[in-house]
Amino acid sequence: MFGIGDKKISTESYKGVRDFYPEDQAIQNYIFNIMRSVAESWGYVEYNASVLEPLSLYKSKSSEEIVSEQIYSFTDRGDREVALRPEMTPTLARMIAGRIQELPAPIRWYSIPNLFRYEKPQRGRLREHWQLNMDIFGVSDFLAEVEIVSVAFNIMKKFGAKDQDFQIKINSRDFLDDVFKKINIDEGQRQFVYRLLDKKEKMSDDSFRHSLITLIGEKRAEELLENLYFGEGLFTMMNESLSAKRLNHTIQMLRKNGVSNLVFAPTLTRGFDYYTGTVFEVFDTNKENPRSLFGGGRYDNLVSAFTNQSVPALGFGMGDVTVRDFLETHKLLPKINSTTKLYICVAPEVNMEEVYKVAGTLREGGINVAVDISGKKLSDQLKSLDKRNISYVSTIGEEELKNNKFTIRNTETREEKSGGIEEITSFLKNI
Ligand code: HAM
Known about the structure:
The protein is of the alpha+beta class. The chain has helices at 22-41, 64-70, 89-99, 143-158, 173-182, 187-198, 205-216, 218-229, 233-237, 242-256, 320-329, 352-364, 378-383, 398-403, 421-429, and strands spanning 45-46, 52-54, 72-75, 81-84, 107-111, 114-116, 128-137, 166-172, 262-264, 278-284, 292-298, 313-319, 342-346, 369-371, 392-396, 406-410, 416-419. α7 (205-216) packs across α8.
């Protein structure tokens, strides 16, 4: 016995993770299918890896918050420090470095891994989530930015979102670096300014200003705030800087390509230390759920942690939790029926061998069929359909078997269709 005495084990899952009952799994599959189909339509190929990684992979290569507060780690029986992956990017950089000689650039890869972070569970944040990762390697030109942001936009549209339902914020760390240089914020301080800017949206204006002054002094703090205030006007002011031209070109080309909800966000930095250039983040514009949905950026130095070769890289991670919240808030989730197309109820005294033959023929024809073997009364078998979400039902008795004529009924519209087994198969196949 597993229980202790008569005390039953809780049916709750571990804190912050989800059980996927079939109706949840169906939604998850719907979300993954859209992610997969868009990724593949842009020529990205799928990869995967183990959830286990050496802990050292994340030390100094990920975000400080993740490593010091959120990583799940343990010591294995061979005394190795092991982590459950909190993100996919370090694993991906390792894999790309391992094959860099053989892979023709541009390398376009995607994956939908489950990731683990010890976070305080709340709306949009759990301890296990799945994340579509789409990354492109080997392209330093801004066309990589245009592609990656366009794909992100494209996925949102494939989910049924309208342009005004979300906003894409974009910035660039090398551009910010140039602004920092202009107002003499030295290199040692920049990382801290990035981290502070990353938290800006969660702070009051006063406490942000106060922290900034503590970091870089009042004069430079005022100057920085003044600069950021100019928005896209900053590109003109920084006219001689390459990074300003590049970011401006990226934004203009994306807008020309139809990404109408793109805005320049000079304080966007994103939390990871490995980002080197463009960063972007997608936000829900709905007031009930005004959260960040997903984001990414350019990380040109991460692969060179594993190999001597320098490999430019850019990508994003889109989580299933925030996407599902978004689809629910905007009522974009379609009704999802069971993958079982037809449920066969059996009349009393029927020859089960014959029923199985019929079901077998339907399956051969590509139809997903379940047969009721509960031994319950026919009325109870039919009643169970209320909770099964299956589109079609058929009752089989002696009569149907003798005449090889079956009737299927749509469980929602109650429309019926009768015919021989071939007719029924081709009807079900074509809906
Ligand atoms: P990230 O911003 O940490 O980036 O995560 C990307 C997305 O994953 C988030 O915007 C959110 O949708 C989802 N996510 C993250 N943590 C959680 C959580 N605890 N619960 C639910 N959803 C979550 C990265 O992970 C980068 N490695 C992405 C990347 C790929 N950058 C370049 N390539």
